[in-house]
Design brief:
5-stranded mixed β-sheet; 3 helices; alpha+beta; about 45% strand; about 20% helix; 5-stranded antiparallel β-sheet
């Protein structure tokens, strides 16, 4: 019995020593991993977002660090070809850039990065996730007419509130006496509520090729007239139903009793 007790004590000591010498079971305390948005986490349908991912292990030198990335909707369905690259390897302390292409359906999505690390004899996994909002863009439209005698061929940009939209470059090609309609889906998560203006101009802004138009964004009272009319219609319907169903009282006496 004493021999068994001694063997048990030795095995327990060896197990404790293995725990001390092996990687920390609390992965978060030894591995620093992150997913950082380059310019916000909201975009328009079909828009692109950029993220920087990084991984650093401070408890030792991992033999391998890999990742897998995916974009899922609110139901958990993975969106095909939404993340590029969707997988890869990193060195300890390294980083990589992920590009996320937003789906054509608005809603809330989740970018999930799953890390796999081989540290000693252990394989450890970690997960990072970021919520992404996909919104319906504002359609900016401008019809341009060539009233001259020479064809117009150039690249132009949409300007919103005087600021050029970098990804709105459009090829303008109009023959004399013809017209061309330019459209652009615009979204800016920092756009304030209220009235905004836009026009079309050259890249340096020196040549404005259109007049100025306006649009309203999230204007709470912009549709107050429509809401008021709808309310009036509902009230009129209720009054009509009440009058129609109201019983008619006979305040006179029947002719036979007069």
């Amino acid at each position: 019995m004493k021999l068994i007790a001694v063997l048990a004590a030795v095995m327990a000591a060896l197990a404790f020593a293995a725990v001390l010498s092996g990687p920390d079971s609390d992965a978060e305390s030894v591995a620093n991993h992150s997913v950082t948005a380059a310019d916000g986490t909201d975009t328009k349908t079909g828009g692109e977002l950029e993220f920087t991912i990084s991984f650093t292990e401070s408890a030792g030198d991992p033999s391998a660090i890999s990742y897998e990335a995916k974009l899922t909707n609110s139901s958990g369905t993975t969106q095909s070809s939404a993340v590029s690259p969707s997988s890869g390897d990193l060195s300890n302390g390294g980083s990589a850039t992920l590009k996320v292409t937003a789906p054509t359906t608005t809603g809330k999505y989740t970018l999930t990065v799953t890390w796999t690390e081989k540290l000693g004899d252990d394989t450890l996994t970690y997960t990072d996730s970021v919520r992404i909002g996909v919104h319906e863009p504002i359609t900016l439209s401008m019809t341009l007419e060539n009233t001259g005698s020479v064809s117009i061929s150039t690249n132009v940009y949409f300007y919103v509130d005087g600021t050029m939209i970098e990804d709105s470059s459009t090829s303008l090609s109009i023959a004399p006496g013809k017209s061309q309609t330019l459209t652009y889906g615009y979204y800016d998560s920092d756009l304030s509520s209220g009235k905004h203006t836009y026009y079309v101009a050259s890249a340096d802004g020196s040549t404005v090729v259109s007049g100025e138009k306006t649009f309203y964004y999230n204007q709470d009272d912009s549709n107050w007239q429509s809401y008021l009319m709808a309310l009036i219609v509902i009230i009129l319907i209720i009054v009509f139903i009440w009058i129609y169903r109201k019983p008619v009282k006979n305040y006179g006496k029947p002719k036979a009793r007069r």
